[in-house]
Write a structure and sequence with these properties.
By secondary structure, the chain is an alpha/beta fold. Helices cover 42% and strands 16% of the residues. It is globular.
Length: 403
């Protein structure tokens, strides 16, 4: 089969890729050949999977599968339009109503992804006269949304509430709205944002408070209600963003808040306005997942039992899992900090060769000198699987002079 040669107009892309290869941080996508689970098959090799966001093992839960099949039979495979024209099905509204009840808010709107939920919300509720106060380690979707809003961006030091207040005081008398935004759980280090303290600060200065709970949804709070519930900050957070793509086991993002906020996003959030709505099977799957959060709290208990065990074992083995040169992990996201990008990617490839899927993450996803293997616990990993993963990590690290 013939291929068309690359045109010189894109030579600058090849140059960037060549630089990544020289730095040792170039990667190729691995292909999953079966179900996303604690043990699965990538690129023809069976491995223990510590790279997935499938926190509660819902990706293949029978109740979710049955709900999806039923929805396809009843509603077909696609919605055929954007929500504001002809693509709002009753099942979409049922999902949003269920999430709103779960999160104890007036209303909810579902987006096609967590990324578009963040970017679409921040960019639509603020303008160029406004100010955004953003944690320096906030997710890329928050950063992009802030830039799209054209608001003035003030970045406070990671989890530094006092620094956030300093910046608020600087702009207190400026015209325009002020928005404080933080991740509930930070995706690279696994630490928890000071949501309660920042919400109190927002209340003190009349600022809008927003939380991205992508990695807190299904993990923190009662039955996985997130960081707002974890800190008992109900009624103090104006905008709650969550995901349907991680602990919920399917796809999408959502925004929760007042009825007026959601109605406004219906009219102004560009990803909502210009993207076809979820397939009915996805909406049905998510509804079933929220039922399971209520019915099977033992899944979250198992997740945290696995997290505590794995973290303690990594520390005992001598790995840097945060707290030395980076924030300390407080959640099922447990980084193994190496620092050097090339060494990290080599370590990840060797772990895979030994039967462990643990992703190497380097610049620009994390700062230079902060490269790490990011491991993620799920409720479905057995103690035997975790011990096997620890053995692979430890023996490989010693052989490579990492430990």
């Amino acid at each position: 089969m013939s291929t068309v040669a690359a045109r010189p107009q894109l030579a600058h892309l090849t140059a960037v890729l060549d630089e990544l290869k020289q730095r040792g941080t170039f990667f190729r996508l691995r292909e999953l050949e079966d179900i996303q689970g604690p043990v699965c098959t990538y690129d023809g090799k069976k491995v223990i999977n510590l790279a997935s966001n499938n926190y509660l093992g819902l990706c293949n839960h029978p109740r979710l599968e049955e709900a999806a099949i039923r929805a396809i039979r009843d509603h077909g495979v696609g919605s055929g339009a954007v929500r504001t024209i002809a693509g709002t099905m009753r099942i979409h509204m049922e999902l949003e109503e269920k999430i709103a009840r779960f999160k104890n808010v007036e209303a909810c709107v579902v987006f096609q992804s967590g990324f578009t939920a963040n970017a679409g919300t921040v960019s639509s509720i603020l303008g160029k006269e406004d100010f955004i106060l953003s944690d320096e380690l906030n997710h890329a979707s928050i950063i992009d949304g802030a830039r799209l809003s054209k608001a003035k961006i003030k970045v406070f030091r990671h989890k530094d509430v006092a620094h956030c207040e300093e910046l608020l005081k600087e702009v207190e008398n400026e015209p325009g709205k002020k928005l404080i935004i933080t991740d509930g759980v930070f995706s690279m280090d696994g630490d928890i944002g000071p949501v309660g303290e920042l919400a109190a600060l927002a209340e003190k200065y009349g600022a809008i408070m927003m939380v991205d709970d992508a990695h807190a949804s299904g993990v923190l709070g009662r039955n996985g209600r997130g960081s707002v519930d974890h800190f008992n900050a109900h009624g103090k957070v104006d905008v709650q963003v969550g995901t349907l793509s991680k602990a919920i086991g399917a796809l999408g993002g959502y925004v929760c808040g007042s009825r007026d906020l959601i109605d406004f996003l219906y009219h102004r959030a560009r990803p909502f306005l210009f993207s076809t709505s979820h397939p009915p099977s996805v909406a049905a799957t998510c509804i079933a997942a929220f039922d399971i959060l209520e019915d099977e709290p033992e899944r979250i208990e198992r997740l945290w039992t696995n997290t505590r065990y794995f973290k303690q074992q990594l520390e005992s083995a001598g790995f840097d899992i945060g707290g030395r040169s980076t924030p300390a992990s407080e959640t099922p996201i447990i980084p193994v900090i190496l620092g050097d990008g090339r060494k990290t990617m080599e370590f990840s490839r060797e772990l895979f060769a030994q039967g462990l899927m643990a992703t190497g993450i380097a610049f620009p996803t994390v700062p230079e000198g902060k490269a790490r293997i990011r491991t993620i616990m799920t409720s479905e990993h057995t103690r035997e699987q975790l011990n096997q993963a620890l053995e692979i990590l430890t023996t490989t690290a010693k052989r490579m002079a990492i430990l």
